[in-house]
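Running co-folding for adenosine-5'-diphosphate.
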Amino acid sequence: MIKIGVLTSGGDAQGMNAAVRAVVRTGLAHGADVFAIHEGYQGMIDGGKRIQRMSWSDVGGILHQGGTIIGSARCMAFRERAGRLQAAYNLVLHGIDRLVVIGGDGSLTGANIMRQEWAGLLAELAEQGRISAENATKYEQLTIAGLVGSIDNDTAGTDMTIGADTALHRITAAIDAITSTAASHQRAFVVEVMGRHCGYLALMSTIAGGADWVLIPESPPDVDDWETTMCDVLRKGREIGRRDSIVVIAEGAIDRQGNHISADYVKQVLEKRLGEDTRVTILGHVQRGGSPSAFDRNMSTMTGAYAVEALLEDVNYGKAFLVGMSGNQITQKPLMECIERTHAVAAAIAARNFETAMDLRGSSFRESFGILRTLVRALPHDPPPGQKPLRLAVMNAGAPAPGMNMAVRTAVRLGVDKGHTMIGINHGFRGLVEGDFHEHGWMSVNGWMNMGGSNLGTNRTVPDGSDFYAIARNFEEHAIDGLLVIGGWSGYLAALELYKRRDVFPAFNIPIVLMPATIDNDLPGCELSVGADTALNSIMEAVDKIKQSAVASRRVFVVEVMGQYCGYLALMSALATGAERVYLPEEGVTLSDLEKDVRALQTGFRKGKRLGLIIRNESANVVYTTQFMAALFQEEGGGLYDVRTAILGHLQQGGDPTPFDRLQASRLAYRCINYLIEQAGSDEPQSAAVGIVGSKVRFTSMDDLPRLMDALHRRPKEQWWLRVRPIALIMSQPGPDATPVSVG
Ligand code: ADP
């Protein structure tokens, strides 16, 4: 029997529980024993009760909890060989020679040191007679899978670390709240966020929260007298009507000379030079706390499951590797290589090689910093001499998606900054037909970053008949040089209709770029559309509450979620909430499925189960509706449980956009504006849809789009997220230890 140990170590991070749950359940599903090592390395050294075999239900109901249920600690003794010798003894005693270590770079470094010393440690233990020679041979290698648990997102080898997305949620919510009070009193605020060597949280929360200035360790202000530059920008901002000034500072912020910049120092500067009433808010441990976001739950689940499967493969025996994410792909990389790269950033900052530090952070970090530097300007740059000013139109189309406003804001500001005229089209394609065009300027989109819905207005209109003539006339009248459509399926269809008619209407011979914004995540050429993350979090929060409401009774919930013919929201919300069954339109529902589900519910509740949770996509089957399923389960339950439905409805389309949706909206809008400007200047302007594929921004030509679309089911022919299906099946199956399955 293979025995796997799992521990959480160093600073805690939201999502660690989901990772522990995935490790335990995947291990058990593959027939391994999994031991929780409580309190990090301290527990490994202490042994005894701190190393406990885990059952399927031991990790039930923990997905939504922040922190780590198996405890974390910092342990000085593990830094010494003697400590590691004792730890090795305890592992061998339990027969554990494979570890999943969930922690920051310190914890992962420690794990790797123990792995390197392993043979020597075992030889010494055998020599001392503490373990048998047979065991020294049997467990001759230690294999380590590392998952990075760190809210700072400071580790190379993964795009995101466990906890970083949730920390961004906390910070962005705080900045949103501070913005409204600051604006009321026209105050200045300095907000300090975590990140000793890493400006990720500071930079991304500044973009997402629409703050006015940021100070990060990797790229200190590039002038010595940065205080004057900062104050100039903030003063000009006030002059053009900004009612607040918010400076975000990473705790490790430094100037060009490497001197620490404190939040208090920034406060003094603002008070002295601008005469502004300035307050400091240090967010501190709030950033580590609370329930993990959907992204953190799902990433932790996916990487935790993968880590175990990799640990069980012979090719990985004796190795140390890091399991992370690149875009939506799970990656496995040599552990030490990732740690060395991580340390290289800190070393570059210490040596004041800021260019190197930024290079090591990667291109999207640098790009985000560049976007921010334009967005925070009080006023646009002067246009470059000799440049032809363009007239670029921006519109929303399809159902509202959180993040649409952020996309419009970024597009307008970046377009204006490059010297072009930005025209907003109100009310989607209807407005395009009716000529509802309005020019936007720098300040007309002020404050749009955190607003849900669509300020321009949006609907599902797809033009036909004489509409095309009217649109062509409006394009000519307003001399439109390029069009950005930010929207969903019907917006894509409508734009394709214009594109098809370029020969008939010369006015359509302009570059058109489509940006995916729909909660359904059903668009071709992109893996994640803007709005889907917000909807997923809204569903997850609602289901968390529904689960709580049912703890006192024996109840089954059938929760219906949106998505049209795409099961993305259903599957991902099932994964994030621990639903035991999910019905997807891609798979359909058959009578025998329902029969099997009824039997599973009966068996579970007979064994003492208290809550059943089933998630159903709204279009999973036209006949077996949510009401039908609920009635069937109730009738067949024979009094073992009762059944309730929850149709979540439009709460899924609303809400303030999550940080991820704001950032994605901003990044894609930036690329779209550049694309339009580039294409408008070419003799044969191209049109395309933008999207993130893997971890790269890609443009898919309009000519290729129809080929990628399943027109009948209104979804892409290829859907990457179906790969996650097997993990959801493992997580939700009844435990092999035959304990009653508690949901979660
Ligand atoms: P994090 O894992 O969040 O970076 P720390 O750096 O505090 O947090 O590391 C957590 C624990 O990992 C330490 O308390 C120690 O037990 C262990 N550890 C860290 N660095 C080393 C090292 N170089 N050698 C051995 N153990 C280490």
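Result summary
Residues 9-11, 41, 74-75, 78-79, 103-107, 109-110, 113, 150 surround adenosine-5'-diphosphate (CB under 6 Å).
Residues 737-742 have pLDDT under 50 and may be disordered.
Job closed.
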